[in-house]
Amino acid sequence: MKTRTEEMKMLVAGQWVLRDDTIDVINPQNNERIATVPKATRDDMKHAIEAAQETFDSLDSWPTHERVRILKRVSSFMMENQEAFARTISLEGSKTINEARGEVARAAQTIEISAEEARRMQGETINFDQNEGSENKVGYYYHFPVGVVGAITPFNDPLNLVAHKVGPAIASGNAIVIKPASETPLSALKMAEAFTEAGLPEGMLSVVTGPGREVGDELVTHPLIKAISFTGGTDAGKKITEKTGTKHVSMELGSNCPVIVLSDADHNDAVEACVDGGFSAAGQNCIGVQRVYVEKDPYPSFLDDLVKQTKRLKMGDKMLEDTDVGPLISVKEAERVESWINEAVSKGARIETGGTREGAYVEPTVLTNVSPDATIAKEEIFGPVVIVEPVDDLKEAVKKSNDVDYGLHAGIFTKDLNRAFYAVKHLNVGGVMINDSSDYRIDAMPFGGTKDSGIGREGVKFAIESLTEKKVVSFKISDPF
């Protein structure tokens, strides 16, 4: 049955608008057009930014209780309409309907946490009298919003990653302009509908759909934008930093996440976590499992069980309840993943299972004997491929884990607390998950990485810190008696 094509409007400066030029939104499963969105121009983006600044200025001091009220309404709206949001996520992207339902719940929680953190934006008193000559000074510091935030989001979590931009921005009293991924703009527009329904002042949120080279460049270079929050590829992130100047910048970029499995680990837990962490969302996950280092004694049985469990995954129609793995975001991306697999094989890698492509689908793949100079060993695959390699000991596993240009998350399975703490100390990453895969995150924790994996931290409280300034207030007082 052919899906009806919807003509969607974008939200610019408080108004839902169409444009003559449009961008097709394609279901990657069958290459069917499911919607069109406006192809915004540089002028559209300028208008959104300038209106955001005007609205921000007009609100002067936007009360916390109003921000909390709006955010709570949005969170409730999302859960009341969970199935509609989930269907949108799944149709425009790669996630199965079950994965999409989970994303809606997480996004609603992200907005709920944002409401809670809005209440906790507190400063501290300062002991000025610690300095000789300042005995007659008292004061404090507090947080105030930077103004207008520019945000760019990727396709792989088209709702929750938008929530991680909008929630903290609104919680801290900022206006925000979002440029969502052109492949998956519908989820961002649907969230904008929720904020409109909740009574967000016009102009405080715009969702501008258009090509990155035009509207994206305007967003990161416009002088009224005071902070940039970007989630996406490392190359794109580096180009953005060349253009932003002195703006606040927060970036979550690429990864190549390792998991270490030691001989004392719970074998079954490790296998299950690595399969789930490697192949959920068709492997298009920045903290997904890409490399697994296993001590030599359990390596044969671990590999055998990992392959068996991987073969049980059902690849197919995203909208069916029993589907485990959907398509990649496009045929082009699937072809890239296929080419990386083939390159690894040409350099001696063995395909233990998978390795085939049909359209935008890539079969869940386990590789062994991968050369360290293969692209798939060094770069982020962003597809359903897991590399498994035996190691002599923990020290070797940590060394190999660190031997890439990324450092987002890592996992380690062990029952030995001392070995766990060795990994915590020596893994050069932003997060170490003990007895879990790299693919673990809650939306309240600081999230980000080292090296080419990014700048700063997301997670609502920590994002708010990057979207606010600290202002110090000092009173000079005199004793009247």
UniProtKB/TrEMBL annotation:
Keywords, sorted A to Z: Oxidoreductase
Gene3D superfamilies per UniProt: Aldehyde Dehydrogenase, Chain A, domain 1, Aldehyde Dehydrogenase, Chain A, domain 2
Domain Aldehyde dehydrogenase: 16-473
SUPFAM superfamilies found in the cross-reference section: ALDH-like
InterPro entries membership: Ald_DH/histidinol_DH, Ald_DH_C, Ald_DH_N, Aldehyde_DH_dom, ALDH-related_metabolic_enz
Enzyme class: oxidoreductase
Gene Ontology terms for molecular function: lactaldehyde dehydrogenase (NAD+) activity
Family of this protein: Belongs to the aldehyde dehydrogenase family.
PANTHER family recorded: ALDEHYDE DEHYDROGENASE
Free-text function comment from the UniProt entry: Part of the sulfo-TAL (or sulfo-SFT) pathway, a D-sulfoquinovose degradation pathway that produces sulfolactate (SL). Catalyzes the oxidation of 3-sulfolactaldehyde (SLA) to sulfolactate (SL).
Protein name: 3-sulfolactaldehyde dehydrogenase
